């Protein structure tokens, strides 16, 4: 019962985050249009007077709103991640796991190894080619049913060590997006930590009936 209630709460939080991201994208689009004021910077012309071609109070209000949304988005993501960790911890020790309609494990236990993850467990682990840094840099905290990610075998809670050519570093989300877009229709080797082992899962970004090319959400760790 606790797991079911927490899962329902987490799904509701994810829906709130989706709506929040839509609001953020709308504001960013409006502020970033050609000739627009941008997301930051002063609102004066070359002579130091307030620009007459924009509604300065409205721009300031939108910038404040965007900053608030970003803070709320960060807090919401932290809450979602905390709920996912709790779901992992309350999972029964039995080998039987609960699955959703698409067949991927909803509450599979994922252990983050503190070392370089070079020692793999014997069950289901595959030899994978990863760089010197084998520490997970993102967690999959949302997967849409019947999405490419679900159909290709990614699971909720998988912790990503390598996504194609992307490994830990700066600007992770833009790099992940660029990698998926550049490899559309091609199988990308995705290395994840699952139940204490490194697993290599070929995933093919592709157009489907839902959003994006994968249908999953990466939360940077």
Shape: globular
N→C terminal distance:
28 Å
Question: C-alpha Rg, in Å?
Answer: 21 Å
Q: Supply the CATH superfamily name of the largest domain.
A: PDZ domain
What is the CATH class name of the largest domain? Mainly Beta
Number of helices: 4
User: Biggest sheet: strands side by side, in what order?
Assistant: 4-3-2-1-5
Low-pLDDT regions: 92-132
The oligomeric state of the chains shown is single chain
Quick structural gist:
With 221 residues, the protein is an alpha+beta fold. It has helices at 2-31, 56-89, 148-152, 172-182, and strands at residues 138-143, 159-163, 188-194, 197-203, 216-220.
Word description of this protein:
This protein is an alpha+beta fold and 221 residues long. It folds into 2 domains: 2-89; 96-221, Pdz3 Domain (Roll), CATH 2.30.42.10. It has helices spanning 2-31, 56-89, 148-152, 172-182, and strands at 138-143, 159-163, 188-194, 197-203, 216-220. It has a 5-stranded antiparallel beta sheet. A hairpin with a 2-residue loop joins β3 (188-194) and β4 (197-203). The longest helix has 34 residues, at 56-89.
Spell out the blueprint of helices and strands:
Elements (H helix, E strand, L loop, with lengths): L1 H30 L24 H34 L48 E6 L4 H5 L6 E5 L8 H11 L5 E7 L2 E7 L12 E5 L1
Antiparallel strand pairs: 1-2, 1-5, 2-3, 3-4
Helix pairs in contact: 1-2
Task: Provide the descriptors you would attach to this structure in a database record.
globular, 5-stranded antiparallel sheet, 4 helices, single chain, Pdz3 Domain, alpha+beta, 221 residues
């Amino acid at each position: 019962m606790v797991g079911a209630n927490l899962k329902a709460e987490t799904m509701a939080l994810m829906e709130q985050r989706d709506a929040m991201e839509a609001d953020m994208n709308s504001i960013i689009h409006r502020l970033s249009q050609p000739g627009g004021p941008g997301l930051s910077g002063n609102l004066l012309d070359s002579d130091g007077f307030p620009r007459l071609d924009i509604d300065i109070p409205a721009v300031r209000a939108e910038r404040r709103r965007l900053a608030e949304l970003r803070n709320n988005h960060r807090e919401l993501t932290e809450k979602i991640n905390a709920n996912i960790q709790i779901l992992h911890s309350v999972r029964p020790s039995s080998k039987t796991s609960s699955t959703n309609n698409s067949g991927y494990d909803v509450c599979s236990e994922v252990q983050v190894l503190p070392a370089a993850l070079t020692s793999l467990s014997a069950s289901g682990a595959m030899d994978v080619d990863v760089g010197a840094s084998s520490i997970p840099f993102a967690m999959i905290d949302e997967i849409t049913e019947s999405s490419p990610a679900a159909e290709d075998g990614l699971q909720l809670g998988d912790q990503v060590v390598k996504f194609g050519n992307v490994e830990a570093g700066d600007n992770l989300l833009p790099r992940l997006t660029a990698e998926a877009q550049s490899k559309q229709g091609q199988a990308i080797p995705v290395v994840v930590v699952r139940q204490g082992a490194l697993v290599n899962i070929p995933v093919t970004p592709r157009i489907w009936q839902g959003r994006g090319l994968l249908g999953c959400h990466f939360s940077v760790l």
